[in-house]
Structures are given as C-alpha cells and as structure tokens.
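Please produce the structure of this protein holding zinc ion.
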Amino acid sequence: MILPIVVYGHPALKAKNKEVESNYPELQKLIDDMFDTMRNADGVGLAAPQINKNIRLFVVDLSSYELPEDKGGQFKQVFINPVIVEREGEPEYFNEGCLSVPDIHEDVLRPPRIRIKYFDRDWNLHDEWFDGIPARVCQHEYDHVEGIVFVEYLSNLKKMVLHRKLTDMTKGVVNAHYKTISTKR
Ligand code: ZN
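Below is the modeled complex.
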C-alpha cells in the first residue's frame, strides 16, 4: 500500500522517534508499505517519520543506482533501531534530495564511511561498515530517525535562497508527483 509522505514543516519530521518493539503491530506490512511508498516516489531511502510513524526504522533500496558488487551491489535493506557507532574519513560533498523536501537538491558534507548497528526485518542483529552511496543514504535516513532534515545543514545563504520555497512547503504548496501531507492545507 502506498502511503502519503509528510513534507517539510510537518511536526512528525521533528518529533522524537521511539525504539521499535519486537511485537510492534503489523511491522512486516509497514515495512512492505514503506518499500512500496519509496519506489512509487522514485526514492532510494525512506524513514518511518516520513510516513508519520515516529519510530526508529528506515528502508533503503539502491537497485536504481546499479552499483558494482564491491560498492554495495543490489543494496536493499531494512534498518530497525539503527545506531551509527563510528564515522570515518574526510567529509565529502554529495548532492542530496529528500522525498519530504520535494524539488530541492543541495550538496551536503558527510564522512564517506560509517559503522552501523541495526536489526533487519527478521530481528537479526548486524554490525557493518558501509562506504560510498550506501553510507551516504544511511546517514541521510539515520538523520530522519534523529529528527534532522538535510536542509538544516545548508549555509545561511543557501537557506535564504530557499526560504520562500521552504515556507511555501510548510503551507502545503508542494510540487511532487506522489501523495504528500503538509501541516496546513
Ligand atoms: Zn530524507
């Protein structure tokens, strides 16, 4: 099932996210719905707060990148209760976008390598290092479970340039090809 995606300015993006309990009702269906919602919106990652669920869960599917095997290959994973325990390397810029901030793409500085602990959808515990695109997308999605949206990292000048667009978004003026919810409509 395709769910509406909350847009910049919606309180769900800034709320505190709870740990997922193993008896969380219909968790498998929620995960399937998140993959459907992400694919429908042409995204590569989606975090639970973006569909108005304030829990520590995100999904990533990098199939569309067609990465070589040593760069993550057909990277598709569910991250439950993730914790980034280490970040490594000289931070680099990469152009990011976000399904909750439609139509805005900006360069964001992040370290290239991370070590992340998480549970998969079968509740197996993982402790893994990622680099390249998988590390980038995981850091962006991890920020969502921490209540951070990537535009917060932009310079004051950039924020000024985008101010009108972001303010419009909080008022429900959204240019997206998928279903969205904003605070005021
Ligand atoms: Zn995002």
